[in-house]
Fold:
Amino acid sequence: MRSLNICIDIDGTITDSYYWLDFCNEHFSTNITEADVTAHSMHEVLGVDEDEFLKFYERNKLKFHSNQKVREDAGPIIRGLSCYHNIYFVTARDEGLTMFTHGFLRKNEIPYDRLFVLGTPNKVQKAEAVKCDVFIEDSYDNAIQLSEAGYAVLLLDACYNRKPINGNITRVNTWNEINDIISGLAEENKAM
Ligand SMILES: [Mg+2]
Structure:
């Protein structure tokens, strides 16, 4: 078995895809359901102005992210994977959330080798820097960008990412599925 470099997105990937819905529905007096979330940008889904949404986010980002829960199956699986593989969290969150995000991962007992809080959705450079073997994402645009740069992507299925994928992307539904695929990749690479 070979030790793999696993990159993992945070929001909507280790946490629930729709974690922000209740919080936003309350603030914007909307009644959006999970099935309505067919775009990745929250302001588009909510039908509000982008600037207005960004101001709301800026004021509430700590509360916004504190409310997030780690998916039930993600914690134990990442703990298991971390015994054999390198775990790199790569998030587009703004850099001001770095310490908060370290705290969030520790509080939820999620082990990791490095955390990269990029402040930009462009993750290809970081994937290159850590010699990424597999990238776990929920964003369709990120998945396309990474896969076109040659990286294998596991895309966690959600209403907002159900669009055509290419051969480097595998659509998955659960962290158990991710675990099986990664175990397979590590075995395939055992001679390397
Ligand atoms: Mg995400």
In short: The CA atoms of residues 26 and 37 lie 16 Å apart. The chain has two domains: 5-16+70-188, 21-66. The first strand starts at residue 5 and ends at 8.
